[in-house]
Amino acid sequence: MSFSFARLGFAGARLAAVGIVFAIAGIGGAEEECPKPVEMIFDTDIGNDVDDAMALAVIHALANRAQCELLAVTVTKDNPYAGPCVDLINTFYGRPDVPIGTVRDGMAPQDYKYIRQLATAVDNGKPRYAHDLESGADAPEAVALLRKTLAGRPDGSVVMVQVGFSTNLSRLLDSKADGASPLDGRSLVKQKVKLLSIMAGAFTQELAAKRFCEYNVTIDVPNARKVIHEWPTPVVFSGWEIGHAIQYPAASVQEDFCYVEHHPIAHAYDLYRDRKNDQPTYDLTSVLYAVRPDREYFDLSPPGHVTVEDDGFVQFKAEKNGPHRYLIATPEQVARVREALVMLTSEPPGK
Ligand SMILES: [Ca+2]
Q1: pLDDT per residue over 279-295, tens digit each?
Q2: How far does residue 46's CA lie from ligand 1's centre (Å)?
């Protein structure tokens, strides 16, 4: 029997139409429509700039909303206080047991401005910011943790966010089969990783004309080349110009973190930037895109290929079906993203 609205009559046709609309909308299964949390691994050079700490705060705010799950944090800054700084921020936000892995024989070993101060701050003989990782040397080596974490997740499920040097992820690509997985690193990444959201490079004609070389790439060029040239799944770049255009307002640091006497993010900001000054949102943008890619916070470049030259200069060439894209932000998007990042960075810990 052929289906016909006319055969059902007006009332029947209306009910059928409503049924179709319900079926299309999936009404009755509303819970099924909520997207699953993004399973994230965060790879950071925390300590070289304060945006890594702020990006970690954004991750926790998104995790509070069940929009992401922080599987692990790996550190590329080879300083003993970098891992403890990650741990104290995770603990502050109520996730003290997120696995942390640290680089061995890595880059940028100097303390710089805030990680030692936060990790060693004491009030009345007790640590100001609770943490149980006392030194990065006590944490698992980063690549072993990356392999173990990836191996334990479903295929194509993990989003990796790299906001520092490429040391850990390059070594991951080169890693061999081990007790965690019979796959080599490249095959493991290809099987498990959905997306690499990376803060690296610069993608405007103005910066290219000056041969501007971005910090995350120049600090470890060989490993940046390997990751960018050989990563086997899609990569989206947040170039220097994105975080530079979206400035975190000093007023937020002055006013929005006062819900607790000592706040590790505000403390780090004071030591690094001084709360009188705005701060670029480089690493925060890579996190926001990774978790909310479809909210039109950014436009995307056409697909293409990014190449890294010997001095760390990065070039993009459009190419159909290429694996790389970079973020673009219109003035309207700059304003939207800045406010979203203010709300997320300053969100108090969950229960
Ligand atoms: Ca960083």
Answers
A1: 999 999 999 999 999 99
A2: 6
What's the CA-to-centroid distance between 54 and ligand 1, angstroms?
Answer: 10
* Contacts made by residues 303-306, CB under 8 angstroms, sequence distance 24+: 306/201, 306/228, 306/235, 306/237
Does 28 have pLDDT greater than 70?
no
* 132 Cα–ligand 1 center, Å: 23
Cβ–Cβ under 8 Å, residues 231 and 308: no
**Per-residue pLDDT tens over the stretch 103-115:** 999 999 999 999 9
At 332, the amino acid letter reads E
CA of residue 323 to ligand 1 center, whole Å: 23
Residue 307 in tokens: 């190449």
Give me ligand 1 centre to Cα 130, in Å: 23
The answer for residues whose C-beta is within 8 angstroms of residue 331's C-beta and 6 or more apart is none
**226 C-alpha to center of ligand 1: Å?**
19
187 Cα: distance to centroid of ligand 1 (angstroms): 27
- CA of residue 320 to ligand 1 center, whole Å: 30
CA atoms within 13 A on the CB side of 232: 14
pLDDT digits (tens, 9 = 90+) for 175-198: 999 999 999 999 999 999 999 999
Tokens of 172: 């991951």
Sign of CA dihedral 94, 346, 39, 241: negative
Look at residue 47 and give its three-state secondary structure.
Answer: coil
Statement: residue 22 has pLDDT above 90: no
Q: What distance in angstroms lies between residue 158's CA and the mean position of ligand 1's atoms?
A: 20
Ligand 1 centre distance from Cα of residue 15 (Å): 56
